[in-house]
Amino acid sequence: MESLADLYFTINKFEKATVFYLKALEINPYAKITLYNLGIVYLKTTEHQKAVEAFEKAIKLDPEYFNALKYLSVAYCHQKKMTLSVETFKKCLLLQPDNFDINLELAMINFNNLDNYQEAEIYFKKCIELNSERKDLYKHLFSVYQRLKKHPNTPNTVVSPPNPKHPQH
Q: Quick one: CA dihedral 3, 7, 12, 17, positive or negative?
């Protein structure tokens, strides 16, 4: 059942994929990967509440199921439940603290949706630590400092990428 569901999923026949994932779950309701895949199908078909339910069931079976946690956070975002999204993304960071994409998601949600500039600053700095070549991160961090009314030259602030032509002393 599941391999048929996977096949329909890969060819974007989401309605048929859903039917076969649900049939597979009738046979084995404890299949976390099937629950995860069903959640992904529901995300793709914008059935966000059903996606949340599928991901939550998968996480009950495996509380450290990183991908299910990540996409549960995404589903919460689609539902405009930003606080739940942030809480769930933070659970992802407990499993993978140096995950650039999760740190960036947390930075952007805190900056754009929650107006939590202190938290945004923490996550943008972590992103810069993980990928100092991304110039957009410095621009975002500078915007955070503007909102916090921090002067860019205060201690512990970073607003420009290191210049490899001019070594730091």
A: negative
| Tokens found for residue 96 | 């993978």
* Residue 149 falls in which region: left (phi positive, over 0), alpha (psi -120 to 50) or beta: left
153 φ, ψ (degrees, to nearest 5): -95, 5
Residues 27-49 have pLDDT tens digits of 999 999 999 999 999 999 999 99
CA 168 to chain CA mean position, Å: 34
Per-position DSSP letters for 72-118, written without gaps between them: HHHHHHHTT-HHHHHHHHHHHHHH-TT-HHHHHHHHHHHHHTS--HH
On whether the CB atoms of residues 2 and 20 are closer than 8 A, the answer is yes
